[in-house]
Amino acid sequence: MPVTPAARLARPRRWPGVVAWTLWALAMVACLVIPWLDQQLRRAGRPDLTQWDLRPGIGLVSAATVGAVLASRRPRHPVGWLLLAQVAANLATGAAAQYLAWGLLPGGPLPATRYVALSYPASAGGLLLLLGFVLLLTPTGKLPSPGWRWWARAMVAVPLLLVVLVTLAPGPVDPSAQVLGSPFDFLGLGGGLLVVNQLALAFTTLAVAVCAGSLVARFRRARGVERQQLRWVALAAALLVVAAGAALVGLALDATEVVTWAISAWVAGLPLAIGAAILRYRLYDLDRIVSRTLAYGLLSVLLGLGYAAVVLGLGRLLPQGSSLAVAAATLTVAAVFQPLRRRIQGVVDRRFNRRRHDAATTIQAFSTHLRDQLDLDTLRAELLAVVDQTMQPTRASLWLRPSHALSSAAGGHAARQ
């Protein structure tokens, strides 16, 4: 049978998925190459020039995976491709840092060191701009309104102009100082180059802030499915507050590991929230997901503290090396698990999943009242009211068999016996 143009268009296109997962595979290979290059730098006697860190790498893998899934399932949605472009910009930043680091080894600088040094902060700034576009186009894939077109064009035109200025501006470049800091430290730049890079950083930071603000404005006026989608992003924003609090505690205690892990965990979680919003994953179960996560998180913390308290307390009373303390702590945790879980779940539902808590309370009150209710009409009205409050259907009705049908059925049953 000949294939018509309409049938050809109706076929699902596979090339977006092939391209997306090919880019993902290349990103994973690059993630493995960078640690290998770091190992070679250690062998060369320059461990101070290594670049790879597992914690930011988790965020890179998260963005690459979510981007590949979105680009393959929703190829017309730009956010998936933007996430993959973010991964590419991140890898380009790492590649520039590696190039500059290898140029500091014995043997002299590598060719085009100046231009690679200039591209080092530029690729990192491009990553921030791509993040701004991701926030601006989530979850619909379109600009919030036609009035945002000028801002989107400025987000493209201004960085291109700044890249040209960076290439032409005079000023010293010191790769040895630049590679030892972050891309936005600008330690190895001076003169006009320093000024232009500072302007670029200020604009990219402003762009991300404005695009994040657009999410807040859209969430306030969104309705229906879009509002449910934006709730995933709002959850990511709430986690940012938690991560920022943990980072501040880490800074106060001079624990840089806590700061890095807190920020890296949020960076890894943001693409997951965006992907869930765009794919509309469990939109109307988000309250349940949040309540379950909080409940089991608190339960794990409390049980862990209780286990440690029992082990330490009994460990001082029993002989050293006795396994009785561990056995007693295990039995204690097993005994209090279910009662504590129900108590914590009730507290969390009362605060974060109010609909489920109110529904459970209504059903419990109805079941208690049901024991004393004898009037069938009143019982029917109360049952429909409970269904309406808990399930919230668009329409509900109750059908009861006529009394003569029940009598006939009972008589036939008695005759058969």
Record keyword descriptors for this entry.
mainly alpha; 0% strand; 417 residues; disordered C terminus; 77% helix
Short description:
The chain has 417 residues and is mainly α.
Overall, the morphology is globular
Rg over alpha carbons: 30 Å
Helicity range of the residues?
Answer: over 70%
Roughly what is the average pLDDT, rounded to an integer?
Answer: 76
Tell me the distance between the termini: 67 Å
**Total helical elements:** 15
Oligomeric description of these chains = single chain
Secondary structure blueprint with pairings:
Blueprint: H1 5-10, H2 15-43, H3 54-73, H4 78-102, H5 113-137, H6 149-168, H7 175-179, H8 192-221, H9 224-252, H10 256-279, H11 286-317, H12 324-352, H13 354-370, H14 376-390, H15 403-416
Describe what you observe in this structure.
Helices cover 77% and strands 0% of the residues. By secondary structure, the chain is mostly helical. Helix 9 runs antiparallel to helix 10 (256-279). The chain is globular, with a radius of gyration of 30 Å.
